[in-house]
Amino acid sequence: MVGRQRERGNGAGRPQRRPVVALYERMVEAIRAGTYPPGSTLPTEPRLAAELGVSRPALREALILLQEDGVITVRRGVGRTVSHHLPPRGFEFLKPVESLLGAGRQVVTVPLARTREEPTDFSTQHLVLPAHGEVRFWESVIEVGGLPACLTQEWASDETLAELLPDAVAAFEGPGGGASSMLGLLLDAGRGLPLTGSSTIVATTLGRQRGAQLGRPADTPGVLVTQVVRLERTPLLAAKHMLPPGAPALPVWQAR
């Protein structure tokens, strides 16, 4: 999802949930409850709007979000069909990288950089950034069992976070912020909000700088995971996670 919509605060430091998101969640729960079983065709828009007690414009917007997230598919001549493989609920979408790699083992996040920098091509591509200014940048090595298992680079816009998730800004600035990944703190601050993530995975080599940070030769093969975390449709965080050979297995959920 590439939208740039933003929410207004509710006066308590939390963004208000848009009605279309509440409708989206109602429909997902109805699917899970068997009202609209996987593989079935949804009723027509007028009938579905009547069943849910909502307007057709609101329903249409929710249906677009459901299609984008793979909850339903649309085929000409068939209509809207409920997918057989539904996305997991809420925070099952997202877990801190250190939690995914740890799986009961000792995990330590070693901070390499906690700073602000000029926007890069990567952060500009994936985040909503001000025309002028800096972006928050964190770089960390995640050690599992005393060995480097992942090099993590993370970017976030303080301007966007201050508007949508000010608790995250406070966590980043807090005394214990350096001992965690930015993603871990963001998920804690946003618990209960509709945060989602999307990722891509490619095979590559570590390169000289990353190799030095992970204690490996530059030509060592590795797996690079890029990730964008969103609050509804607004990107809050963009990250790169480089995993060298021998890193713990990283569980992957694949969307169609």
UniProtKB/TrEMBL annotation:
Stretches of the chain forming a coiled coil according to its record: none
Keyword Phosphoprotein carried by entry: no
Listed Pfam families: GntR (PF00392)
Limits of the HTH gntR-type domain: 17-85
Spans traversing the lipid bilayer: none
Keywords: DNA-binding, Transcription, Transcription regulation
SMART domains from the UniProt entry: HTH_GNTR
Keyword Ribosomal protein: no
CDD domains hit by this protein: WHTH_GntR
Domain of life of the organism encoding this protein: Bacteria
Protein name: GntR family transcriptional regulator
Organism: Streptomyces yunnanensis
